[in-house]
Amino acid sequence: MSKKITDRITWVGKTDWELKKFHGDEFTTVSGSTYNSYLIRDEKIALIDTAWLPYDKEFVSNLKEEIDLSKINYVIALHGEIDHSGALIELMNQMPKNTPIYCTANGVKSIKGQYHKDWNFQVVKTGDTLKLGETTLTFIEAPMLHWPDTMFAYLSKENVLFSSDGFGQHFASEHLYADQVDQDKLYKEAIKYYANILAPFGMIAIKKINEVLAMNLPINMICPSHGLIWRENPTQIVKKYLEWAGNYQENQITILYDTMWNDTRKMAEAIAKGIQNKDKEVTIKLMNTAKDDKTDVLTEVFKSKMILVGSPTVNNGYLHSIAGILEMIKGMKLKNKKAVAFGSYGWSGEAVKQITEYLKIAGFDVVNEGIRCMWTPDKQLEKELIGFGEKLV
Question: What is the rounded CA–CA span in Å between residue 288 and residue 310?
Fold first, then answer.
């Protein structure tokens, strides 16, 4: 069902209430998501993005109820990833031949590489414009936010920034605008989206945001490709991105662990008690990497000023859930965060040293060589672990 945004702009996307996983099984979308597509009507008519492939026929069918496809003059592909471009084949098969698709040079490579179609691509770069009538679209390349082909588009007169994956959230709602929903839930989904998708590109985000701000464009709305539209104080999310991209941390310590017979869990809880003894204000999160959702784990790591990572030693190494989450954390390219390792063992005990080395590779400031426990912690070792936590503070 289409939804009118302004007299010229109509939302013609898809709300996916059922979506629970994204990027394969990497990202958990407990709140569903949307695939936002926007129809701009002026003397010329432009369509910005489409929808994910499973909804291609539904998308095109709904679009045909909104407008005669032959009247669409331009298709704008802000980003070639399949959740944005998946309906292109179905759409282009029903559009007039040679309808132009405007995208970046990398966008051509991406779309051709996925769909193997030689459509009428029109390559644009930052500063290029497309006059629709009274309004004009200005294109702004945004490579690595979060793919090399990504770009933004700004519509004059309406003062709307179409921001692709920037400023989005995986958030399905009966509403269209960010100010219409629970703000705590919105913030949670927005920071989770940033942490899991855009965090590795923080410095690029700062540079691009400052570049856009330097253009002094009036912005009435920010329309992302996923989730809700920012219309009330729309630059609030821009300010958040500048904050999140600036080596962000909260007063939080997150303890990640996996455990076989609960010895490493007991270590985690004792260390947490020590931290709490010394600092009543700090937020402490304990997360079992084999049981907690990895999307949530990465979000909490992103928010933290320090993380602790613990595993028993198994086959001269650490458990696979720890290995997996460490690899994902390394990919986030986080800065200005401290870390330490801990773990239990029965005979060899290499895991703590190995985790310590990996944390260094991942860019953390490792504060000490960590702490190990042979077999199950007794009362004496529990006191040592509590003291270890106190010293960390």
Answer: 10
Closest CA to 186 of 226, 138, 244, 131: 226
pLDDT in the model for residue 1: 76
- Same-domain check for residues 177 and 209: yes
Cis peptide before 226 (omega within 30 of 0): no
DSSP notation for 247-297: T---SEEEEEE--SSSHHHHHHHHHHHHHHHH-SSSEEEEEETTTS-HHHH
Element holding 22 (H helix, E strand):
strand 21-22
Residue 154 contacts residue 217 (beta carbons within 8 Å): yes
137-184 pLDDT, tens digit per residue, is: 999 999 988 889 999 999 999 999 999 999 999 999 999 999 999 999
Does 363 lie in the same domain as 286? yes
Same domain, 274 and 237: no
Q: Is there a contact between 228 and 169 (Cβ–Cβ < 8 Å)?
A: yes
* Residues with catalytic roles: 23, 79, 81, 83, 146, 165, 193, 226
Q: Which tokens go with 24?
A: 């394969």
Q: Encode pLDDT of 262-317 as tens digits.
A: 999 999 999 999 999 999 999 999 999 999 999 999 999 999 999 999 999 999 99
Which residues constitute the domain of residue 188?
A: 3-245
Q: Are 83 and 55 in contact (CB under 8 A)?
A: no
CB neighbour list of residue 235: distance below 8 Å, 6 or more residues apart = 219, 222
Nearest CA to 203 among 166, 174, 245?
245
| Tokens describing residue 277 | 């003894």
Q: Return the SS3 of 141.
A: strand
- Is residue 37 within 8 Å of residue 13, measured between CB atoms? yes
Number of other residues whose CB lies within 10 A of the CB of residue 61: 12
**Domain count along the chain:** 2
Whether the CB-CB separation of 151 and 140 falls below 8 Å is answered with yes
Q: What is the pLDDT of residue 195?
A: 96
> Whole-angstrom Cα distance, residue 11 to residue 151?
19
Give me the CATH number covering residue 261.
3.40.50.360
Of 222, 245, 268, which one is at a domain's C-terminal end?
245
Examine the domain organization and report whether 365 and 336 are in the same domain. yes
Q: How many helices (H) and strands (E) does the chain have?
A: 12, 22
